[in-house]
Amino acid sequence: MNEKILAVEDDEAMAGLVRDALASKGYKVTLRSSAESALTYLGGTLPDLLILDIRLKGLTGLQLCEILKKDPRTSSLPIIMLTSMAHEKDKVGGLRTGADDYMTKPFSVEELSARVEALLRRVKASGALAKVLKAGKVQVQLDSREAFLEAKRLDLTKLEFDLLSFFMERPKVVHTHTALADAVWGEERVATSHTVTVTVSRLKEKLGGAGRMLEAVPGVGYRLRAE
């Protein structure tokens, strides 16, 4: 295993945890404590994956992610964001700026290794992040914005397609009503918990039997259960 990973984390103890966890799995890990120093590093070396803390001093992780996703050279760089459990908006912000996954602190080294391995596997399989998502009998084509149940094209609204894509890009993760509203509806449109619930219900109906993959987590939100 020779993949290069850049971890940007200003907490020395957390940075050491990330480095030791991934180095033990055979990854080549480089640490940087600021977004500015990470940009300098990335100007000469392009790693296979970036682990990025959101709450950095100076240029934040969100700002760095946005910069990298707008640069053709680094736009396809896989990024895992690290954020505090208490900051739901940070998670949504990271996903909006183009991050491919997020993890909340504290986390286990086993989970970190698994997330890194899964994301790198996706990249290797396609040469870039998947443009086609699959879950059970459901397939989503991101480029053409089409969704299929087996071979039948699904007639989804824009919101339903965006919601389905959001779930399929992040399977098994529990998303709160607030996170879904912010990520899918955005700031320009008002979406209450009831709005989210109704839209999820309509999506489940259109998915037929495959709709059981969308599970309600009582008192929290929803998740896509892998079949």
Q: Main attributes?
A:
2 domains; Rossmann fold; Arc Repressor Mutant, subunit A; 4-stranded antiparallel sheet; 22% strand; 8 helices; alpha/beta; globular; 227 residues; 5-stranded parallel sheet
Q: How would you describe this structure to a colleague?
A:
Helix 1 (12-23) crosses helix 5, helix 6 (158-169) packs across helix 8 and helix 7 (177-185) crosses helix 8 (193-207). Helix content is 41%, strand content 22%. The protein has helices at residues 12-23, 35-42, 61-70, 88-96, 109-126, 158-169, 177-185, 193-207, and strands at 4-8, 28-32, 49-53, 79-84, 101-105, 132-135, 138-141, 146-149, 152-153, 175-176, 214-217, 221-224. It is globular, with a radius of gyration of 18 Å. It has 2 domains: 4-126, Rossmann fold; 132-224, Arc Repressor Mutant, subunit A (Orthogonal Bundle), CATH 1.10.10. A 5-stranded parallel beta sheet has the order 2-1-3-4-5, sandwiched between helices. Strands 6-7-8-9 form a 4-stranded antiparallel beta sheet, covered by helices on one side. Strands 10-12-11 form a 3-stranded antiparallel beta sheet. The protein is built from 8 helices and 12 strands. With 227 residues, the protein is α/β, with parallel strands linked by helices.
